[in-house]
Amino acid sequence: MNNEKQISVLLVEDHKSILWGLEKLIESVPHMRVVAKAINREEALQALSEHKTDVVLLDLDLHGESSIEFMPEILQHQGIKILVLTGTRNAEEHQRAMLSGARGIVLKDESAEVILRAIQCVYDGEIWLDRTKTANLIGLLSERKVRMDTEAVKIGSLTPKERAIISTLLNERGAQNKIIACELHMSEHTLRNHLSSIYSKLGVANRLSLVLYATAHRINDSFTTARPPRAAA
Is the domain defined by 157-222 classed in CATH 1.10.10.10? Predict the structure, then answer.
């Protein structure tokens, strides 16, 4: 381990007795120091703006607020690494924290030695998770990647004409089929045939579910369609 540089730690914990104990623990190590303490979101973000910090030791539950929600704000500060210190054993919460940018999870009932080792490992650029959490996280990421790849294949199967139809539907939400068909210079019958093909490819049932799907997957942002000029009245 590289102990040449002193590791600056920000403690974010809403129980003052635990804050006190963590500060004493970290300050007992020559190459670690506590630069600030915070008990809520506002204090944590203020401390980050005032102190150069290497590792944020972050409690997941701050007076009923999930700190996962403001992890992106913490990570806007360059070089920051987040180590979650929590009393919850909820695997889903741990996974959410890791997917939101945390570099590790350590339980509050772990020994002082383990907590210090976790801080060092996260500072060194490593991931701190026990074997069970690592396996679960890898499984979750693999499942998510498969789902994303599957949707990408579906979207990639759309023809330029089908993409133009989806783009027009998103731009003309609520318009009747005859209006959409007019916009695209095609008959309503042809439009219905194209929509049937789109529904089949994307696995949706109707126009409403198509619009919801397209919005959720940002389909309109994934391609640029030159819309044909509106036909003269």
Answer: yes
How many whole angstroms separate alpha carbon 207 and alpha carbon 110?
A: 53
Percent of the chain's residues with pLDDT above 70 = 83
Provide the 8-state DSSP code for 76: T
Compute the C-alpha angle 208/210/213, nearest 5°.
110
Q: Please tell me the predicted confidence (pLDDT) of residue 140.
A: 57
State the pTM of this model: 0.58
- What CATH architecture is 7-140? 3-Layer(aba) Sandwich (3.40)
pLDDT over 90 for what percent of the chain? Answer: 40
The Cα diameter of the chain in Å comes to: 81
Contact assessment for residue 170 and residue 183, using Cβ atoms and an 8 Å cutoff = no
Pinpoint the residues of the chain covered by CATH 3.40.50.2300: 7-140
How far is 163 from 198, CA to CA, in rounded Å? 9
